[in-house]
Amino acid sequence: MKETIGRRVGLEFGGLPAKSGKQDLRRRNLLLLLHYIQSEGPASQAELARRTRLSPATVSGILQPLIESRILVEEGKSSTGLGRRASILAFNSRIAVIAGVCIDLEECEVALVDLSGRVLDKACARYPRYTEPNEVVELAAGCLSTLEARNSLDRSSVAGAGVAIPGLINSRTGLVQVASNLGWVNVQLRALFEQRLGVPVRVEHLGRAKAQAEAIWGKGKNHRNFVCLEIGSGIGAGVVAQGRILRGAGGIGGEVGHIPIDPAGPVCACGLKGCWEVFCAGPAIRKRLAQRLGGDNVPASMLNPLSTLRDLNAAYRQGDQVAAGVIEESAQYLVRGLVGVIWSFDPEFVILTGPVVNDCPGLIDAAKTIMGGLTGNARSFDIPLILESHHAGTGVVAASAAVSLRYLEEFASTDQPPSARFLSAR
Ligand SMILES: [Zn+2]
Q: Which domain CATH number covers 197?
């Protein structure tokens, strides 16, 4: 049975501070309604009442001030039912829209995302690898200005910006500790963005951002325990445990790519030896391929040391023996780490995302086969490995998720549009 929306309240920040009395109940109900429109999209008051199990009079009483102040606007009429057709209510993107910024190695994408996760428009800027952080911020700011002009919005409509980036990120402070593939170390990225954009900014690790978006808009809806695993040039994860994103004491929880697999393994970017990601992230798989091709008695192969992961996948599908050896050994390492993740967090499922997952689905198939055959005597490892959601898995949408959620919680807490400090208020 589908759970009610109420169980998801407080997914990220713990909901509203505990108070008592009628006012508190009204705020909680307001948050419930805002969460529903956020995750399910525009809805009529009748649908909101039905799905939240609040009375129609309560829903109407709570939402009327929001309609009068144009926070919620009518977006068409419902097409079902008898009699007068009901107004569909949506968040007004002219009052509050979130800038979702996804930073990658050679390009950044910026989107205007409304509070229901809908992308109004997006733009992108390219740059050479290892470009300085302030230049990337400048390019992202240019994209945002372009989007505002194109959509006749000004900066006052942008409630905040969410920035998603691969690397070791402290989402509490906005510090990029290490983003080795960008060549960035100890970059105060939140401060750089806030100075340039003039709006509150949250910087988040890409894996955690995707886990948050999956929880609100994607395959994690109505689930309280799952892991979103990003496999690219490294391995990172967003862990949702008992309905909350795990951040840990230092704000970097979920960096499962640095779980040690083999103390005699290669040195990792983190400085230790034999981390999970040095065995089965993208560079490790390509290195394994080059080593196999350079070994003795190599079978004839359609691959060469410069082959991409897509080439590897295609060769594997065609029965190439070298490709099979590389995929199967990589899959063994992938499963080794997955078993650690499953023991640690006991997830209902693992969402797989990232370039390695997209380019080399054969690796995931091989890992699933190995997982299915694991026989421990303490627990089953046969848990679903699923692919990311089409929409929530988009970098810019994921980047906006935590900001969007925090905005609504602050709104429900204070009963008015949040101040410019809403992202650092708690
Ligand atoms: Zn490491």
A: 3.30.420.40
Any domain includes 288 = yes
* Ligand 1 geometric centre to CA of 260 (Å): 7
In a domain, 421, yes or no: no
Q: Which of 10-14, 309-313, 324-328 has the lowest mean pLDDT?
A: 10-14
Contacts of residue 149, Cβ cutoff 8 Å, sequence gap at least 6: none
Summarize pLDDT for 234-287 with one digit per residue, the tens.
899 999 999 999 988 888 888 899 999 999 999 998 889 999 999 999 999 999
Domain span including residue 146: 97-212+392-411
Q: What is the pLDDT of residues 44-92, one digit of tens each?
A: 999 999 999 999 999 999 999 889 888 899 988 877 656 677 889 999 9
Average of per-residue pLDDT across 365-382: 86
Q: How far is the CA of 168 from the centre of ligand 1 (A)?
A: 10
Domain termination residue (choose one: 91, 122, 152): 91
Give 417 Cα–ligand 1 centroid separation in angstroms: 42
Q: Are residues 225 and 203 in the same domain?
A: no
For residue 287, give the 3-state DSSP assignment: helix
| The overall pTM is greater than 0.70 | yes
Domain match, 260 and 234 both: yes
Residue 128 tokens read as 């050479």
Q: What is the mean pLDDT of residues 370-377?
A: 85
Order across the sheet with 107-113: list the strands.
119-126, 107-113, 97-103, 158-165, 201-205
CA 324 – ligand 1 centroid, Å? 27
Q: Are residues 23 and 102 in the same domain?
A: no
Q: Which of 73, 91, 109 is the last residue of a domain?
A: 91
201 — phi, psi (to 5°)?
Answer: -130, 145
Residue 301 Cα to ligand 1 middle (Å): 32
What spacing in Å lies between the alpha carbon of 272 and ligand 1's midpoint?
6
Measure 182 CA to ligand 1 centroid, in angstroms: 16
**C-alpha–C-alpha distance, residues 269 and 231, integer Å:** 15
Predicted confidence band of residue 6 (pLDDT cuts 50, 70, 90): very low
CB atoms within 10 A of CB 205: 28
